[in-house]
Amino acid sequence: MTHFIDGAWREGNNGSFDVFNPATGEAIGQAARGGRAEAEAAIAAAVRAFPLWSASTAYHRSALLYKAHRIMTERAEELARLMSTEQGKPLKAARNEVRYGADFLLWYAEEAKRIYGETIPSARADQRFMVYRQPVGVVAAITPWNYPVSMITRKLAPALAAGCTAVLKPAEATPLCAIKMFEILEEAGFPAGVVNLVTAEDPAEIGEVFTTHPDVAKLTFTGSTPVGRMLAAKAAGNMKRVSMELGGHAPFIVFDDCDPVHAAKGAGLVKFLNTGQACISPNRLFVHRSIAEPFIATLKARTEKMKIGSGLEDGVAIGPLVNEAAIAKIERQVNDALDKGAELVCGGSRATEGDLARGHFFAPTILAGVNEDMLIYREETFGPVAPVILFDNDEEVLERANDTHYGLAAYVYTRDISRAMKMTEGLRFGIVGVNDINPTAAAAPFGGMKNSGLGREGGHEGLDEYLETKLAGFSI
Ligand code: NAD
Description:
By secondary structure, this protein is of the alpha/beta class. The protein has helices at 36-55, 58-74, 76-87, 91-111, 150-162, 175-188, 204-212, 225-237, 260-272, 292-304, 324-339, 394-402, 417-426, 459-464; strands at residues 3-5, 8-10, 16-20, 27-32, 118-120, 127-135, 138-142, 165-169, 195-197, 216-222, 241-245, 250-254, 282-288, 307-308, 316-318, 343-346, 365-368, 385-391, 409-413, 431-434, 453-454, 467-475. The strands form 6 sheets. It has a 7-stranded mixed β-sheet, sandwiched between helices. Strands 9-8-7-10-11-21 form a 6-stranded mixed β-sheet, with helices on both faces. A 3-stranded antiparallel β-sheet has the order 5-6-22, with no helix packed on it. The longest helix is centred in the N-terminal third of the chain and has 21 residues, at 91-111. The radius of gyration is 23 Å and the shape is globular.
């Protein structure tokens, strides 16, 4: 029973599907195959719950979010182990994600009490203006598999804080993490219908309901740009509010004034985080020609030491990819680059030694001599491949870094303050890390420009996404 609708766990009418461990190929559980009927039932429950929930005090909503945070923190280890098993990331990274995910419950428990309105002076002596912030209504949420816990709280915590009710559909690869999260929300005591979960093997039917149902006020989506674009177009036809957290193609720029060894350590950590399956993963490493040698040597030495395997094994840095399609995409990009003259520094093929043959593993890879003609220069890789590109001057690298339809994250390594400021201001990306590989936090706005999306999650901006502005004019 894996749909959570109107405060109760339900089976649905369409049977269930298997969920697999990507490191071993073993089935580890099942989730119900939801479709139109379950999505509509969940929306109806959210509609019924909305009047009471939206009228409840901010202090009440805050208290429940605090409680959910406490329960999630108590269950952190259980959640992290499930995440490693279902999604594949190393246990240490899974623990970090649980902490990051829990931070959203805490931050929005606090922010719920700070949804302030405004009074505006009028030109008329007998008039008063008041601006209210009110919840948008029923929210439909779709989340990806790569961060299967934190993407849920990054959406639900601000929606609930704002007074919205919600229906969430998790990715088909990671429904078990979503179920565990909803058990936590159930235990926290959110009233029936306030939060609803519908699992699905085929997401299209539910996407159709979420984008067309007259009672859905807002769609919030995290996933790939093509799917986000299609859903946003449908939602626009029905005048729904949308937030879109989509793909990225992050430049990682290493200037000649920085320590190339330090920069290479940072590049290795952020590139291979979650086996490269992160929307903020560097996809083009621009390195100044004069320091290319020590940078590549350090990155190579560290990459070759990375242990590949199941996330639950000690010392593993590189977990499995999500599925065979991911391996095929990486192989295509690597082979295309090599055919067009790139140099293979290390890795370059899938890893199949011993038990690795059972899962979807790809050796962490570095390509040097990458250029604009290669697929990897433009396409999001979503895998453990670090493409290195050399540059000679600041203007050139800024122009090349911005030469992408994506605009999520960018990284700059420099010790020159003026250069750091010019780059930060010139990069057309929603997030810029300056000598910093983790420029994210529940308190900070996360999101992209251009084809990387619309809107922001986290921070006070993340709450605005779930609020409508209402103006009241009083004649006294
Ligand atoms: P995806 O677009 O295939 O799937 C994401 C979600 O959309 C899943 O829940 C999936 O079931 C659902 N979906 C797919 N087709 C649908 C349809 N027709 N109707 C309704 N729902 C549908 O993406 P993915 O491969 O799961 O995730 C990886 C992508 O997500 C990458 O591009 C990555 O950059 C992006 N991502 C972005 C962020 C961010 O915050 N910007 C965070 C994580 C991942």
